[in-house]
Amino acid sequence: MSTEAMKLLSVAIAIAVGAIGPALGIGMIGSKAVEALGRNPEAESAIRTTMILALAFAEAIAIYALVVALILKFA
Amino acid sequence: MPHISIKAGKIFEFLGLEITNSMIASAIVFLITIFIALYYKNQSILKKKGNFYYLIKFFVKSIYDLFYSVLGDKTTVLFPLLFAFFFYILLQNWFGLLPGVGSLLIKVKEGHEEVLVPLLRANTADLNTTIALAIISVFSIQYFAIKYLGIKKYLHKFFNFSDPISFFVGILDILSEFSKVLSFAFRLFGNIFAGEVLLTIVAFLVPVLASFPFIALEIFVGFVQALVFSMLTAVFLSNAVVEHH
Q: Which residue ranges traverse the bilayer (chain A) (predicted)?
């Protein structure tokens, strides 16, 4: 396998594997937020703020993988 | 494929200091920030205030309420720092989405050959800026911790010799302060840079109309990242200024 092909493959694997965990995490956060909203609809704004903050945490992990992938691809 | 560079491009040298395209954009946004702040200050003492004043005031008020729910009575002291983070990062993120930023190219001499470099680049898509912001944030957390707890209690959190478990927890706490810098910096840089790459690629694949929903997404992401940066600083601050047992 040539170096170029290996590089492309590593980019793809980096982002693909790195996206699994955050995807599960974001799904769980969303489902729990909806559950909480169902139990206590008055707390909507508090739930939304907390949810977006937690989402940003989970998303950051995917972003790390993305940064690694982008560095591999473009640098 | 369009050319994507992960680091900011050098435009010219000034007294041996490299002036990059992200620094130029940063200077412009800095001036805008100061202008808005001065406008707000001038308007606040007038009898008849402009509409823009009320828009900013609405912004400031909602962000203040949000931070108040985290920090409580310490909000008065800490709010200027947090809102400065929020507002500056927000303007930087949104400035990167303006047409012309990243697409206006100028010729720059690099060694012997001439290369095309974008004149402007979103400042938060440059790792130097985000690391600087992260270091400011983490240092101010330490500063306020020392200010509220005193140097003895502050050090006691990190160096606790009463039993082995607290000792190792202290070491982990020291490590976590350093990892905060990394996570702050990479989260902001990654989000904004990834957004830029996404917009470039989409505009390359489908030149007409397809980038519109992505630009809307990036406006939202820019807002959320500014909020997350200042909110995380607020949460860490509120943890740092209370005593640990």
A: 49-72
